[in-house]
Amino acid sequence: MAVQFKDYYEILGVEKSASADDLKKAFRKLARKYHPDVAEDKKSAEAKFKEINEAYEVLSDPEKRKKYDTLGPNWEQQMPGGFGRGGRGPMAGGAEEYNFGGTGFSDFFEQFFGGGGGGFGGAGGFGGPQRGQDVETDIMVTIDEVLQGSKRNVSFRRGPNGKMESYTVKIPAGVREGQRIRLAGRGESGGGRGEAGDLYLNVRISRHPDYAIEGDDLVHTVSVSPAQAVLGAEVFVPTPDGRVKIKIPAGSQPGRKMRLREKGLPSRIKTGRGDLYVTVEVEIPSAVTAEQRKLWEQLL
User: Fold this and answer.
1) How many other C-beta atoms are found inside a 10 Å radius of the C-beta of residue 190?
2) Which residue from 162, 210, 216, 236 has the fewest beta carbons nearer than 10 Å?
3) Upper half-sphere CA count for residue 19 (Cβ side, 13 Å)
4) pLDDT score of 36 more than 90
5) Using one digit for the tens of pLDDT, what is the confidence trace for 249-263?
6) Are 189 and 162 contacting, i.e. CB atoms less than 8 angstroms apart?
7) Exposure of 62 by Cβ count < 10 A (0-12 exposed, 13-18 middle, 19+ buried)?
8) pTM
């Protein structure tokens, strides 16, 4: 099956000249709309949310964006033959193309920005048993899966005419970006009675519209008006466990951080969870009414 080109700019609804800030705003707006937790049609929203995540994953990374812009819609004419899934280069011995399902990424992403396809292993003496090559690809994991763990069905086809193999993959709670999940013996077959290679899934944490990840902690930015920053206010903020009300102290400066204990990710260095930090952002109105202008002038 031919790999379909993905127009990531169109998916995010931005121009090719969009700045990093433009991309972030577009992603947050769409991600909040299609996040499975809030959408009515959860199944279609989940697919759309993954597509938005994939587009932002590429365009928010300067190196990936440069590569993507170089490819363009005529990417097939620009790529040399012999590339396997993952797009890191031709695989040893002209190995076949791999097709994955259930990873959360499209064929197009896996072709050019994925985990590397294959070409690992194969050790063995001349004429003796040779270990099969390892195969790897990326898997998109949500923050909910990081918190609770999950089981996912991942499918894997070797070549266009190969049989589709399906495996149940355990996503352990507390998994992190860059970790590898190993499926022993699910890679390429060995030669001369050598053992099979392994299948590795490289974890990529999907972007969330409300949080950024910093180690075991989550960071949420809350926007308040100048009046709320000066006088103080009570606002609701999202956490992985549901919305909570927090107090913005009077006189809060932009960038002020408040900590909600044990509202982060499962900790890798201590018992329990990390924290959720709420960063205050003061939103300055871009336009004011005549009456509001008079009040600001009085303050000045």
Assistant:
1) 20
2) 236
3) 3
4) no
5) 999 999 999 999 999
6) no
7) exposed
8) 0.74
